[in-house]
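Researcher: Before we compare anything, I want clean individual predictions. No alignment, no superposition, just each chain on its own. First chain goes here; please echo the sequence and then give the structure tokens.
Model: Echoing the first chain and its structure:
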Amino acid sequence: MTEPVTVDLMDADLLSDPFLGYSRLRERSPMVQVAFGGAGSPLWLVTRYEDVRAVLGDRAFVNSPANVPGLGLKDVRETTVRSMGVADEYAPYLLSTVLDADGEDHLRLRRLVARTFTPRRVQEMLPRVQEITGDLLDRLPVRDGVVDLVEHFAYPLPITVICELVGIPEEDRGLWREWGAALLRQDEPEGIGAAVAGIVDYVTELVGRRRAEPADDLLTALIRVHDEDGSALSGFELVTLVLALVLAGHQTTAHLIGNGLVALLDHPDQLKRLRADPSGLMPGAVHELMRWCGPVQSTRFRFAAEDVVIGGRILRKGSPVMASLVSANFDPRRFDEPHRFDITRQPDGRREAHLGFGHGLHYCLGAALARQEAEVAFTALLERHPHLSLAVPGDDLDRARMPGVWQLRSLPVRLTQE
């Protein structure tokens, strides 16, 4: 077998233009070996659409190395988490969430919250999402016609919605925004340990409060499940479930809104079409934005639970793999002219060909809610501010310099015509 193509995920070209960089890798090889220390065996990056779908949908790949039978694999993330200043007592809360569970444990935890995110329940939330959106736009702190839409709109919208669903009091939501931002700053790790400790201690305390004063929210429902049958949901799992739902429930949507607005402003022909028919084109436009500039560009490690053939290469049992979502979403084997941004690519707005929300058993639980929030956000922004424009050149936008994500730290825009 030929020597594998290798890649350093911190390569400057990949970080600055992952869409082009990972597309080049994909055309060189369906499987790329990552320069990575400590995995115990080579870490592979899967690059092509059909192979990525296979990895995400095949139960032969597991999220937890402990579920690879017979090998006693160590979780390579433990060293990374502790190197970020996360104390031993708090590390399990990052390493053992619903996102890390496999098989029946994953299904059990997922079922406990799935009803909150059904299409019907999400549709019932539409008026409230529209109300929150309008209120945020009413209160934008504009200075000289300019405002940071990441800080004052893209982040507050989804964090407010998910916190209301879960049951986080309004006065505490600013803390969650700070904690979420700290966890994302992996290039500034000094605040991560404090953020994890703050989240775990807060949720533990809030569970006690909500047990004494029940409310009509998801947290109260989860406490009831735990108190009635601890085998259905342990106290540890309750805390990690809240942590995962709140953090995952706003980060993706916030950065989809930020990335999406930049993409629309960079493509005035597409923006003009969308303005002309927002109700008809918006659902498909959000799908295309999720494909074209999705904020999550690769999955977490998965592990082959048995020998598996992917991309023409045998992956031995225990081999760690990552699926490149950005590479798959730009694969010309699946998408015609994939680097062309086209809001009518999915005209009915329902078929989801892209892999921005994943695939298979771990498909994003809150995908319907994220799409709805994005549709409402873009519709309201474009209607309220017809002269919206970037306040700085696109090349000067401040993005996180981390592999696997495409996220803006800030998004200064001008709301009025100069």
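Researcher: Okay. Second chain, same rules.
Model: Second chain and its structure:
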Amino acid sequence: MGKPTRRTALSDRIPGGRDGRRMLIVTFVDRIGSGLWGATATLYFTFAAGLSTAEIGVLLAVSGAIGIAGPPLGGLLADRVRLRPLLIAVQLVRAAASLALLTTTDLRLLLAIASVGSLGDRAASVLTKLYATRVAGPERVRYLAISRTAMNVGWAVGGLAAAAALTGGTVTVYRWLLIGDALSFVASALFTLGCAEPPSASRIAATSAPAESAPAAAPEKTTAPNPWRDRRYLAYTAGEAVLFLDDSVFKVGLPLWAVTATSTPHQLVPLLLVLNNVLVVLFQVPFARFGATPHTARTSLWPLAGAFLVGGAALAASTVGAPWFAAATLVLAATAFTVAEMLHATISWELSVALAPPSAQGAYLGVHGLAQAVQRSAGPLAVTAAIAAGPVGWLGLGAGLAAMCGAQRHLVRDRGDGALSVVPVTVSEH
């Protein structure tokens, strides 16, 4: 037998075969565009659109709130129509919304356009996750880890490209970066066009009929599982919205706390974000083992609680002592919250799929997507409240997140055989 080539070895390490690899390219290209726009959105609305700070706040807050509907809407549609064309359509909607922002400076029109784009962004996120879940099968957690690595590299490439472009400092540069964001969505749609439609238990169940039926017996009346009637899944999703606060800690909490409450040099702030990115790229794949099975994911909620406690305590301690001590504790906090981010990403992916009935996977994952969407809107408020409370606020936040890990572990019960105890839902139960 011939020696396996490097390309073959790489293919074997990526679950999902050709379609899994192609979707990684989609993820990478998508995140390059997000990095371009994320680094310059506020600047564009300020200098190109001429909005005031208050108007920008309203624009981002309202469009973000409307975007919360994106995950459940996308998941619901994915159980009823083919996933690949749906994902392509959403990518093209995102591209159109980005380009439409160039056509007006009117706040009302910008709000409507940004809201459409926000819906598309949130829907695309859950649809991409659903595609990966279907195509990777039992290896979905490993695929998530590789996908998150591609996301972070894409963000870094887009952010660096935006930083280089902004040295020009002209309004034209902001417009071209927005065009680059739109083109990334078009490219993502084109790459998705080359993917195959993944198997879907929900669509098979909806379209198939028995070849022969016995006329004498009437089938038991059942209905497709409904996540909005599944109290356990709704409670699990609500807890997830809390555990996703690590995102707001990095985007809002760490920078504000470092510059307003500690004696550390301000130059450390961007380095903390770089540290987060580098750690995720290096260790997200090895961390996949913490969510290899539902039982493992449930058990991993304890180290996740520990990481949150360490991160909160380190931020609380960063106000004490010399600048070097403040810097050291901020680095410790950034490391702890990054570990929490990687652990939670792995645990969340596995449990959200394990708790979802295959026949309604899209609807369930769409509801689960609400957790991140809600956190993006409410998370900054929770983090700024912790900052306002001082060191005690960070201790309380860390302890609260750790307590939520314990609550989630209790909620996601284990039968002892590595499987979760999920009760099937029928019409008679509701």
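Researcher: What stands out in the second chain?
Model: DSSP finds 18 helices and no strands in the chain. Additionally, Residues 323-354 form the longest helix (32 residues).
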